[in-house]
Specification:
26 helices, Glutamine Phosphoribosylpyrophosphate, subunit 1, domain 1, 17 strands, 15% strand, asparagine biosynthesis, alpha+beta
Amino acid sequence: MCGLSGEIRFDGGRPDVAAVERMTDRLEARGPDGRGVWSQGAVALGHRRLKIIDLSERGAQPMTDPQGRLTGVFNGCIYNYQELRRELEDLGHRFFSTSDTEVLLKAYLQWGTGCVDRFFGMFAFAVVEQDTGRVVLARDRLGIKPLYLTEDSRRLRFASSLPALLAGGGVDTSLDPAALHQYLSLHATVAAPRTVLAGVRKLPPATVLTVEPDGSRHDHRYWQPSYTRRPEHEGMDAADWRDAVLESLRTAVRRRMVADVPVGVLLSGGLDSSLIVALLAEEGQKDLATFSVGFESEGGEQGDEFSYSDLVARRFSTDHRQIMVPSDRLANALDRAVAAMSEPMISHDTVAFHLLSEQVSKEVRVVQSGQGADEVFAGYHWYPDLAAVQREEEPETYAQVYFDRPHADLARMLQPHVLADHDASSALVREHMAEDGAETALDAALRLDTHVMLVDDPVKRVDNMTMDWGLEARVPFLDHELVELAAACPPELKLAQDGKGVLKDAGRQVLPREVVDRPKGYFPVPAIRHMAGPVLDRVREALSAPEARARGIFRESYVSELLAAPDAHRTKRGANTLWQVALLEIWLQTHGIH
């Protein structure tokens, strides 16, 4: 829901309102229903609105609370805003709207930055204290809603997307070698606070950043599960954990029904999205709209999973739509998806989500989606290997099973001016693995995947692709209470049954067994994976463009080797190497970065 932007000046000058206007306009797709800009003193705020809660103009932003002399912009949804509103009314606060944005402002007035501890939801926001000039920026616990930053000695700018910051101007667009190392090693994941651009950073998840008028600041991380066994769960057996997980997921799905518009589901036919459909049906939601997408087969690989999604749709009597995308649409669809990317993303399903979101947005404004279950409940095939080692061996084992390629390979790929002087990806893993908590090796891996890799790959992907069509995606598997429960769950229960064992047990309570016990599927786009004709033509065009040659990221001999055999070169995890190389260049060209 929505897009926000802003500028804070530190040098005594006035903010560049025209730049904030440009940033705000670049966010139009995220908020097609309204626009607002506010400026006072050294701060300016911009907002684009997607109407989900309080459809009246009383919910417009930037929103000012005259009692508290606060002005704020907000992106996301606070699912428990009605309960918080009642609590705040009991404390003497009076409301002029029915929006969750006003609840946020009153909560800040009542509890200061501690208000984030009371929020159940996904959010990024900026609140300005008019009397002090202090600005507070915050992001939700799992980083579902983005917040990008760029600054120099005079000012700090922020926005819901990286392209919006570029529209403001004055951004250092040189490549960050350490971030490029992560992009090529971690399946295009660049962990916060970095982005591939040296001049743009992102606020990490679960972080509150307080900026004083003189530019001084402090930030703190307000949430992090311990990934240890907790006393309150002592004595629970497998059935107890199954029931606890199902009840927590049921609560998470129920929370995400709050809206003043209909809520649908992106239904792949896998366990995760099927569970959401089953629980929504259990809650009594009638005429539930569900949506599935498929692609033409290429290279002998099936491009859809309609048989499973159809089974679930029939079982729960949903209003179901199949969306089949012919391969000849992919070239144009690819460019539009790349334009929607705040950062380069190589996963094939990025294009799929963008095409799906285009169609879904014609029917509903809000959908629930199953992202996050594999990281939270250990569903990927590499987790048994990670669980088999000692805690101190985990960083090295993680690199062996997760990385796209070893550090030494990058020297053969990259030109010297963009080659990091150290193994930046392994350093990132070691740093996170060394944090307190995480009782076992698997706990450490799941903590890293859930709070770093998940945030800056699938979560970001879904936000970018859905919001480009003014569609809000809600992810119940990233309900923070469910994540806390899963973090405390014994590793062996998550690893059981080839992964997600405890979730599969929960699924058998409400789903047909053939959905729960099916082979694990993915969101395939075979034409990209196998470099089918239209996609390969676009790749060749991008890599031979004058901008690519002038930029000189990759060694020419290496690029020639990839182009000579487009489908032959694979990362350790099976991704097409040519696609990984070309997507970065396509993204840079699409966003006018020279």
